[in-house]
Write a structure and sequence with these properties.
The chain contains eight helices and 15 strands. It is an alpha/beta fold and about 325 residues long. The protein folds into two domains: about 200 residues, DHBP synthase, CATH 3.90.870; about 80 residues, Threonylcarbamoyl-AMP synthase, C-terminal domain (Rossmann fold, 3-Layer(aba) Sandwich). The strands form three sheets. Strands 2-3-7-4-6-5-9-10-11 form a nine-stranded mixed β-sheet, sandwiched between helices. A four-stranded parallel β-sheet has the order 12-15-13-14, with helices on one face. Helix 7 packs parallel to helix 8. The radius of gyration is 19 Å and the shape is globular. Bound molecules: threonylcarbamoyladenylate and magnesium ion.
């Protein structure tokens, strides 16, 4: 299959209209979309990514008025999140309606819904006119793509279309919040922080990942991993600087003996750079990546979650 790389959101929406898949940019990471109402289209996502079908997909819409086309009910507190954080890097898990294919939700009675805060993504989604189911546009298991080139390197020849945009601004995926219980539960930390959510609903809590049956099935799979081994360090003194090792963090490094290094100004830049850095390291055949541990507040919570998952081999 030839992969068309285009800047035209209309061309990308045409692929969706033909029940094909198309990759598109968002502020978190690039997504791989298909019409959420058409099971045969959604099936193509799982095939292209090599993704297990018991891992549900997030449904993306272009504007708030489309939300009633995917859900069946909404608790009062979810409306507050929508007012505050939509569009944005937040996914709300809500009771689904019948039109959403059970292939999208992996048989669950709930659906994850999100409106990206990204002009080109919104134009594309509004042009599609249907809810677009989309996981991150990487091969299953590898780091999520934050550039169109990363999508191409994973999926060239496997998908018909990539909508080309700028590098993703947030760089880690959306926060997934279960809104089906009496209080909101964060299933996956992400671009909207725990503190921000608690600022709106103070009873918001974090799901403990030790649960035997994860509520978010995607959590049980290996994720975000580069080919290199990832180690979490509290500082440069814990590293072995060599041409075959790499370092990413916020503390500066004196001697430049690493094969790759990225010093970030703050946690937001660290989050934005992480997945891209992993991919650059793999391209340079780096064998060991040292990631500096940061405090788990603000975006640091999502950042450390992704680093920890990458460090599990
Ligand atoms: O930022 C993002 O969320 C990106 C962009 C493309 O929007 N998408 C993304 O999708 O990261 P994916 O498929 O890589 O991750 C979706 C996560 C998985 O952990 C999945 O298990 C969870 O959301 N999820 C989706 N629907 C769910 C549901 N109904 N109940 C519980 N968890 C759900
Ligand atoms: Mg993913």
């Amino acid at each position: 299959m030839r992969t068309q790389i285009t800047s035209s959101y209309r061309s990308a929406a045409e692929a969706i209209a033909h029940n094909n898949v198309a990759a598109f940019p968002t502020e978190t990471v690039y997504g791989l979309g298909a019409n959420a109402f058409v099971p045969d289209a959604v099936k193509k996502i799982f095939i292209a990514k090599g993704r297990p079908s018991d891992n549900p997909l997030i449904v993306h819409i272009g504007s708030v008025d489309q939300i009633s086309s995917v859900i069946s009910s909404m608790p009062h507190y979810a409306e507050k999140f929508i007012q505050e954080f939509f569009p944005g890097p937040l996914t709300l898990v809500l009771p689904k309606n019948k039109k959403i294919s059970s292939l999208v939700t992996a048989g669950l009675s709930t659906v994850g819904v999100r409106i990206p805060k990204h002009t080109l993504a919104q134009k594309f989604l509004n042009e599609c006119g249907v809810p677009v189911a989309a996981p991150s546009a990487n091969l299953s298991g590898s780091p999520s793509p934050t550039t169109w080139q990363a999508v191409r390197s994973d999926l060239n020849g496997r998908i018909p279309c990539i909508l080309k945009g700028n590098p993703s601004r947030v760089g880690v995926e959306s926060t997934v919040v279960d809104c089906t219980g009496s209080r909101p539960v964060i299933l996956r930390a992400g671009g909207v922080t725990l503190e921000q959510l608690r600022g709106i609903i103070s009873s918001t809590r974090l799901q403990k990942h030790q649960a035997a049956i994860p509520k978010s099935p995607g959590l049980k799979y290996r994720h975000y991993s580069p080919l290199a081994y990832v180690f979490i360090v509290s500082g440069v003194s814990e590293t072995v600087p060599m041409k075959s090792s790499a370092y990413i963090g916020t503390q500066s490094v004196q001697r430049n003996t690493f094969g790759m290094k990225k010093i970030c100004r703050n946690q937001a830049e660290y989050a934005r750079s992480l997945f891209h850095f992993f991919r650059e390291c793999d391209a340079k055949k780096i064998q060991t990546i040292y990631c500096e541990q940061v405090s788990e507040d603000g975006i640091g919570l999502a950042l450390m979650d992704r680093i920890r998952k990458a460090a599990v081999q």
